[in-house]
Fold these 4 entries.
Entry 1:
Amino acid sequence: MPGIAPLVDIPSEFLTLKYPLPHFARALAGQAPVKIVAMGSSSTAGRGDVVPYPHRLEMYLRARYEGEQSRNLRIDVLNRGRGGQEAIEELRRFNSDIFAERPSLVIWQVGTNAVFHAYDLDEVAASIAEGLQQLRVEPMDVVLIDPQYTPAMLLADRADASERMVSLISAVAANAKVNLFRRWALMRHWHVNNHISLDRFFDPTDSQDKLHQNDWTTLCVSKALCDAITRAAAV
């Protein structure tokens, strides 16, 4: 995006996951490559010239952990995003895209397409709950990511649905005792408290829908997610 990138802060409340990440921490202390699977839709898969968050997260985690190890630690973030999908469709890919990889950490981005494509939100929440039930019986940690705070999600016919989807995801995560990275609230904080215009949040090549994050917001979210993961792994 042209111009100087705006300055934002990331309060500690957004960097503090509720639960530790013991499987990820043990993987960091082991000898095998550390594997993370990023499951989600287009903001996971990537779009156009925007570098998707899994690629950035891999870079930030490698810089954080590999440099301080006396051994040759390798961290891989496998991008299993698929544009246009929601939890209902993503459940069908769990065996091939998550369980077959045997990761120590799964990051699951959900909720955006449910609102954008007017899904039954209760059905989506039920699918997320089912997915978390499948994930929790495996030796892996889980972090959910809720929707992005962009103009398309705030239109008059979607604003209430967006807030409800965010609340449903929070409730499902709390019930399953799974970590939630609150992307929606973090980006709203930047808009409300740092006075960042919503026009600075979306990809300019997506001027019709104004749904997808741009490179700058993806970078900021990725840094925050990296910090949240490293904090939880150190507990």
Entry 2:
Amino acid sequence: MAILEKIKEMKEKSKKRNFPQRYDVVVNIKDVDLKKPENKIDELLVLPKGTGKNVSITLFSDSMGKSEDLTIIKGPEIESLAKNKKSIKKLIKETDFFFSEPKLMPIVGKFLGKFLAPRGLMPKPVMGDIKKLLNDSKNSVRIHLDKQPIIHTVVGSDKMDDKDVEENIKTLLSFMVKKLPKGKSNIKNVYLKFTMGQPIKLEVE
């Protein structure tokens, strides 16, 4: 059954909720040695139709001024932030993506690495056009394959058109096929589910 038909089937079978639900895709990986660095994945994938939700961004920067679109943390603030566990937990909970100016990356790693790294949230270095990078990030998801052979990410919301969600899913699966050592052969299975709902199996085309 085609992905679009699966989306429609899932919507028909799902219980109506009083809150917006997101579409999650779970990709289970097989026969990939994740002890090898070249097999790990940690990239931002721009979804053509976005995620259907607001994205929160934190930037470690000494050169960028205040912005309504993102949280700015200056270099001198990083060490004190690391000492306040309540504040760092709140920041992690409220941030989808972390970015940093290259010169601040060592400082972030030294003081915040123990909080961010285990969650796959270490900041990406900001290179080139910052505004473009930040704009792309608003339509992105982070694809993180490290210790466990599984990818779990959002691909849209139930407020989006079915065809837009389908396009996002196809983009994700195409990305995975290109990134995995043996492509499609390394994908054990793929499931689609709502935030609160039963998963439905998808076929990788």
Entry 3:
Amino acid sequence: MKKILALIILAAVLPVFPVLSQAPSAETILDRVDRNAVPGNKIVMSEMIIHGRRDSRSIKIKSWIEGEDKAFTEYLYPPREQGIKMLKLGDQLWTYSPATDRTISISGHMLRQSVMGSDLSYEDMMENKKLREVYTAKVNGEEKFLERDCWVLELVANKGEAAYYTRKLWVDKERDLILREERFAKSGKLLKTLDVKSVIRAQDRWVPNHVVFKDALKEGQGTEFKIDTIEFDVAVPAYLFDKAGLRR
């Protein structure tokens, strides 16, 4: 009885420490993010809103995507951009403009150019590889973002072709989504940010449906992306991924 009483007293006077959630490994978190973000096939209808210094303009877009290496995009609206197309096959990218009836290969320094005056470069649009394949990651802590519990990850490039040397991610613990991202040059200079404004549930997946992408080196409010519709695991016509099809 005395021993039991002593244990009760000891438990009462000892300080109580909060139990911290056990973080999975950074590799495990990235695997979950990649699995959720890079599905097989999908068709996306979206709107890109480019906020310039004086005004804003909106472009309606339809994209057909097959895995990591194939993507075909067509601009539907407004009339000035209607019919512009882009084709990605592996690490190659072409654009077609009906105004000039020319197909142009985008490579080298051209990949760093802005897409339609937006905050994204062609290099950003080409990026569809799994983060786990390009970066080494570590967990830097936990924070709240959009009222969601997030793991904070620091990524360092392990391949020379990475567009950004380091990245900082806020990953929703439950949904395996990146809710915020900061992208840096090797010098440590902040280059671009990505902020998710809202998410939706589509075919048993959590998908960001409103995102703001901001070039930190430019003035303005950034470029918004809003998903109108998205379909996963759908058949994508093979002819779309033929360079000759850009002129159709």
Entry 4:
Amino acid sequence: MITSAHIVAGEALGGAELFSVRLVNALHERGQPVLAINSPGGRVSAKLQADVAQIHVPMRAIWDLPSRWRISAILRQRQPDIVQTYMGRATRLTHVDRGRHPIHIARLGGYYNPHGYRHAHAWVAISLGIRDYLIRHGFPARRVFHISNFVASCNPSPPAVLRPLRREFAIPDDALIVTAVGRLHPVKGFDDLLAAFATVPEWIHERPVYLILVGDGPMNASLKCYAQQLGIGQRVRWPGWRDDAGLFQEMADLCICASRQEGLGSVILEAWARDRAVLSTRAQGPVDIITHGENGWLTPLDDPAALAAAMERLLRDESLRQQLAASGHRTFLTQHSEEAIVSAYLGLYQRLLAE
């Protein structure tokens, strides 16, 4: 048995927080002793299984000294073998002397400023690009590891679940649907996606074409205004932030990641898990996992015209979408499944402890 403590700060449920929940729950299900340290009242706590041990620490900011002392006291008392931190705030508040237990692993899901991560004992990068980035910034290569994310496998939802969503958002039963999921933030490229969608025909194969943007964020109002300016307001749907975002991917004929910057692209894994074709920009994370024309389709960054052309081509070619979806699903099962990723983490823990 390997005892591990997993520390994540904040009340939001972004990609890193959701992954921490999935990994902690998966380790717990495998009988591994696990402790979750998270913020009181946060959504992370509510997502963990009821019998997972939790301790709440405010972790209000990176200079929250009482929280740093509290975390140190918890680790001295509980004495886990491994402490794994997610994102910058939790990592900066966690300090363990080198050469002593626990071994501190910092997980990085993006191209963050490396300064606040150097004091960890080992690092997990969710993509090869992030791993190379850390090594270029002087991190020791033998202590930087690549382990991807996993998302839950999905059984197809019955029509009785999906049909009401179509009615709720006034989408015709015969519509072709393009779905994008993510935070409405400039790095996600939703402005380029709207500009691209504005040039895609309103009808393809005598079927109306709709775009669903699932998420919320600082660009919410400006993106909705932009859609109206482009004349596509009637063809775009805005469900907001949803815990059931995957249902909108299931409704889709094509899932899109339009990001300008992406550590990996969990939305791609989620689309693959649902057996859906993926179109993505050539952001570093998606390029690491997509082979163009095999398990997905790639277009240049910041190029709405190329994105529109690819979107129209894939919407017109159902057989190509099915081919991409099937290959993407195989990639998900072999490289990004729960079994593969949890086994990789347990193997890393054993390796570090043996050293």
